[in-house]
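Run folding on both entries below.
>entry_1
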Amino acid sequence: MTFAYPLLFWLLPIVPIVWWAMYRRSRGEVVTMRFSDLGMLRGVKPSWRIRMRPLLISLRAAALGLLVVVLSRPQYAQSSERVVREGIDIQLALDISLSMKAGDFDPKDRITVAKEVIAEFIKGRKDDRIGLVVFSGNAFTQVPLTLDYDFLQTLLGQVQTVRRPDGTAIGTALAHSVNGLRNSTTKSKVVILLTDGSSNRGDIEPAQAAEIARALDVRVYTILVGKPGGGEYPVHDAWRDETYLIPAPTAEDEVALRDIAEQTGGIFFRAGDEQGLRDVYATIDKMERSQVASEKLVRYTEAWQPWAAGALLLLMLEILLRNTILRSIG
């Protein structure tokens, strides 16, 4: 229990002073009678009614004390905490060109590892809208920004490499991802672009796409996957019904991806194996966290009523006794 005006309790020491003043006054209001001889009254003791007279003063003083408590406004405080979380809008741009089938992430290929790591990244997010853009020689939205992580995971699991149009349109993919964030009202907008090659397709150059991202205040993290020297990926020849292993190109020129990250306030990463890629996404996950604020709410319930009822009851009892069994003469 709390009190709105606790300083009023300094009035409580006045109560015993008031009691003493009323007691002294009652002693001075004794009704007297004249007797020619007081000898016959020496053995007479005061009746219980006389001895109970100070009770009336005590009841009134106690009522006064309770009124002081009422004036201090006793209250019950109920506190609650409301957590406000501001999410981040994240676009995941995933390269699905044929070279992502390269098996240099032994025993898995690049696309399989990338999908598994991205799925784990999504599981670790909360209250963030996440979208998925896939690209090769062109780019398209697989999943628009959503909070439905189960739906996102389902469509991510269905992503496969494509043969046509082959190539790597990094600029187009970045511009397409940024366009999906154009109407975002969140303070933090992020693109995580994963590829294994250099930009060799598309109508938009990576530098142009980076300028668009910077203009819209979108931070871009770029990830280059694959071991130096690359691996091999299978290509099926439908005419001959044969499958060939073709050396996978590995982008040794990191300049474009570094420039994109630096221009937009992001970071460039390189991952040559599965653990390296997991570390990259773990780092981004720690850097891009939702802003959380807590707001404490306190609700007060007035509790003066029982104290007021007690004071009223004492006053009524005092009046009742004063006018009945403890009634004075004269």
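>entry_2
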Amino acid sequence: MIITIYLFLGFLFGSIDAALAASTEDAAKKEATVVVYGAGNVEHWQKINEAFEKKYPYLKVKLFRGNWEKVRNRVMTEGRAGSYFVDVLQIDGVNGWVLKEDGYLQSHKSAETEAFPEAFRDPSGMLPCCLDTLTNVIGFNTRLVKKQDAPKSYQDLLAPRWKDKLGMDADEGEWFAGLISVWGKEKTVDYFRTLMKQNPSMRRGHTLLANLTGAGEFSVAVNLFGYRVMEMKEKGETIDLVKADPLMVRPAHMALARRAPHPNAARLYIDFTLSVEGQQIMASLGRTVVRPGVKPKHPELTEGVKLHPIKPEMAKNYEEISKLYYSIVK
């Protein structure tokens, strides 16, 4: 009797889910378009969008691409003018939190998010996670530093031998905030103050920093994105990485705009990017995905170490944390 009830309930809920999905698709057909704002490689966007349009041939994707701060500013500028063009936002946690708090997002509890590790889920559905992630790693030039001599931890970067030999992105406030969540404020502040005594060469942009490390501009980069190092290694460039603990990870969330003009097409798009099919596409492009069952192109970036996602709620005190960071890193 009990088994029969469970089977009936399973059939009932399955039928409801199927009906809802069909209803969403029917409504999306009338919308015809989905407008996406996001950051990242244009070729990667083309691949995911082409696959989406192949699956849903009655929908066309329109993309605005800029960094995450530009995405946030564009949404807020349009909102203040009473103009609402965007449907889906691919955005990091800090900028996503600002948009959520200011009322620019609405909940979409995609069933696909249930497949992701719990640490990456957002029960509210306001910032579904995640299209892909950026792993924070130490990078080093293999011509200047032998693998066995490379720093193995963040503490190793404070050794005398690395003084005047480090490169660093000047804008690491988000990583700083993430480390505070793991190390605590006092330890993180002490670490960065000591790190600054190493006189790192400051640059702006992780891609630039990776390129300069590969070119031998400096021996070691304090913080790079793992996927970029792996791309450079594949091309035979003289660069490698170290996964230091804690390994901070920056997820790219897929959020539904509160006043999306094409909300049903937007829901289909978000679900597709988080699905096995969408995640396999991202993985094939070398992006770091964390959905279990989808094999990343570079599993070494996430295997054998605990991942610490930079959560959106870390933005609660981000203005204060950012001021503290820039009082240290000058």
